[in-house]
Design goal:
The chain is an all-alpha fold. It has 24 helices and no strands. The chain has helices at residues 2-23, 29-66, 75-86, 89-107, 113-128, 132-149, 152-168, 172-180, 192-210, 216-231, 239-247, 257-264, 273-288, 292-308, 316-325, 332-348, 352-494, 498-506, 509-529, 533-538, 557-566, 572-579, 583-594, 604-609. Helix 3 (75-86) packs parallel to helix 14 and helix 5 runs antiparallel to helix 6. The chain is elongated. The two termini are 37 Å apart.
């Protein structure tokens, strides 16, 4: 078939060449088509290159960003986590509202003053960084219960918490008056850290509100920092927090402070206010040491804690917005998002001082944001001009392609006419080749059948010749034996040895011996013709039921029966006559062997007839 295909291909090329020579001028149609298609390809390549250039220019920032690799220890990892959490701020606020509602529900069953004060204090803690108005309401309730119980410790704790709330909302004078209501000498030692801590908080806000790097409030703040460090113990929950503030802005050092804070945050889930304060302090310490990367990282972690806790009184996100802004050179999008989030929370809380401080930062970020928007507009206009030029080039390319296609269409029409004639000749040639191939296939099949018949006839002739010689030999042997037997009987009859004659003619040993010799001769001739018959026959039986002749035997009775089947004798009666046994014996042996076969029983005899390659005589 490959030769036929090659012949057809050669004929097609020949006819194509002949028709081109006859129908075209000096410049052939294929050459024109190739040249015009090449021109069109070049135009397409120019257009595609320009479009690719535009895509690369527009996608350059995204390509650079895609190459960044993030690890859990990178600040960018926590920034992306923070961005994701801010988008879920409503979920965190809902969770906090549900928690507060549950606390309120439990407090309705309070009866004793102690239980009511405890519930009110717990709600103050819950509202402290979330909603200043609600926190102030419950701290007033706690203060009223403390006065009702005349409990000095409750009164001191409530005044401190109320002052803390007033400080956080920017009512600094009122907060100072609240602290003045507490007499220093009446404060138990256990409440001194809370008292000094609030005084530090108050005077840091007063100093910040007054302005300047040094003023009388900062001096008092420093004094209270020294005071708190003289009374607070290392086991106190806020010890590391105040220790950090004591070091910041001074020449004091504590090499164990940062490792201690890191240890506390080692397994942190970043979802509580305490973790927010610890992260914030770590960030401020790293800033004090000049480590900007860790400053940004831990400030981001503090912001994550505030967002997941749904806190409204937050300083971390405002400071992080300033870090991200970095005088207009940083991540303006994030700075804009963070400052807006912080401002909204400050307005909700409300924190008047922090709101005023954030307005200036927000103005700077907004200005940078608008400047960047204007720059993007300029870039977009430039890109639109480039796109317009490319569009004009593309339109020109399309026009050229249309004109070229029309020319190509006319050339192809003339080429189609030539191809039609060529296809007609090729079809006729193909049909002739198909008919020839069919005739060749038929002849090949006939040759195969004839070869098979010749092989069968050759085998039959050989078997016939072998067994004719075998029969003549047996007949000759029997004639000799009969002559010898006749002479022996005649001699004994003349000598009147009648008893010996009677004994010799009545015994069965002669018949048995003759049958044994007959079987041996048959087996010898058969195995001479089909030497592999036994192994081939056993391959049709199950492995554990194969027939193996004894050492003195060539074939067993079963093998001998199927040897006759191999020779074409399938009738059990004829096989019985040949082997001098009963037909039932032949039937039983054939049935027994078929039951051992690993081929279907109805196909067993036919399979046996195809067994064995007979031993051909040398030529």
């Amino acid at each position: 078939m490959r030769k036929i295909a090659k012949g057809i291909e050669k004929a097609r090329k020949y006819w194509l060449y002949r028709n081109y020579q006859l129908s075209l001028s000096a410049e052939t149609i294929p050459e024109k088509l190739d040249r015009r298609e090449t021109t069109m390809d070049n135009l397409r390549k120019i257009s595609n290159s320009l479009l690719l250039l535009i895509i690369l220019i527009l996608s350059a920032p995204e390509t650079v960003a895609a190459k960044e690799s993030l690890h859990p220890g990178d600040s960018e990892y926590y920034l992306r986590r923070l961005d994701s959490l801010i988008s879920r701020k409503d979920d965190f606020q809902t969770a906090r509202e549900e928690r507060i509602a549950m606390m309120k529900s439990k407090s309705r069953g309070d009866v004793t003053l102690h239980d009511r004060y405890t519930s009110a204090s717990a709600l103050v803690d819950e509202y402290m960084a979330y909603n200043a108005d609600s926190a102030l309401r419950y701290v007033n309730i706690a203060l009223g219960l403390a006065d009702e119980a005349a409990n000095k410790e409750w009164q001191i704790s409530s005044h401190i918490r109320k002052s803390e709330l007033l400080t956080g909302t920017g009512l600094l004078k009122e907060a100072e008056q609240e602290m003045d209501m507490i007499k220093r000498r009446e404060i138990p030692d256990a409440y001194l850290p809370a008292y000094y801590g609030q005084m530090i908080f108050l005077y840091s806000h007063l100093g910040n509100y007054t302005g300047g790097k040094t003023n009388e409030y900062y001096v008092k703040e420093r004094a209270y920092k020294d005071s708190i460090m003289s009374v607070i113990q290392p086991g106190h929950p806020d010890y590391l927090w105040y220790k950090g503030w004591d070091i910041l802005g001074s020449d004091k050092k504590d090499p164990e402070l940062i490792p201690s804070l890191l240890e506390k945050l080692k397994d942190s889930r970043l979802d509580s206010r305490d973790e927010a304060r610890q992260s914030y302090m770590l960030a401020k310490l790293y800033e004090w040491n000049g480590d900007r990367e860790n400053y940004k990282k831990y400030m981001t972690m503090s912001a994550i804690c505030d967002v997941t806790s749904a806190n409204s009184e937050i300083a971390s996100l405002e400071e992080l917005a300033k870090i991200m802004f970095d005088s207009g050179k940083g991540d303006i999008d994030r700075a804009y998002s963070y400052i807006n989030y912080s401002l909204n929370k400050a307005l909700i809380y409300p924190n008047r001082v922090r709101t005023l401080g954030m307005v200036g930062t927000q103005d700077e970020i907004n200005a940078a944001y608008q400047e960047r928007a204007r720059e993007q507009e300029r870039r977009i206009r430039m890109f639109l001009i480039i796109v317009g030029v490319l569009a004009a080039i593309s339109i020109a390319t399309v026009v050229i392609i249309i004109l070229q296609n029309r020319k190509l269409s006319r050339q192809r029409e003339s080429l189609d006419e030539v191809n039609k004639d060529l296809n007609t000749h090729l079809r006729q040639l193909s049909e002739a080749k198909s008919q020839l191939a069919g005739a060749n296939d038929q002849l090949a099949r006939l040759n195969e059948d004839l070869h098979a018949k010749n092989e069968e006839l050759k085998e039959a002739n050989y078997v016939k010749e072998e067994y004719i010689g075998y029969i003549f030999t047996i007949c000759s042997n029997y004639i000799g034996k009969l002559e010898k037997f006749r002479k022996n009987i005649h001699v004994k009859a003349v000598a009147k040895k009648f008893k010996e004659i009677e004994a010799e003619t009545e015994g069965s040993d002669i018949v048995k011996q003759e049958l044994k010799d007959f079987y041996k001769s048959f087996d010898t001739v058969f195995l001479h013709i089909y030497p592999d018959f036994i192994s081939d026959f056993n391959s049709l039986l199950q492995p554990d039921k194969q027939i193996v002749p004894k050492e003195e035997e060539l074939l067993t009775t079963e093998l001998r029966i199927y040897a006759l089947v191999r020779l074409g004798i399938t009738d059990s009666v004829k096989i019985a006559e040949f082997l001098h046994c009963s037909p039932q014996t032949v039937y039983n042996n054939r049935f027994k062997v078929r039951s051992k076969a690993n081929v279907p029983r109805e196909e067993f005899a036919e399979t046996v007839r195809r067994l064995g390659k007979f031993m051909d005589r040398p030529s």
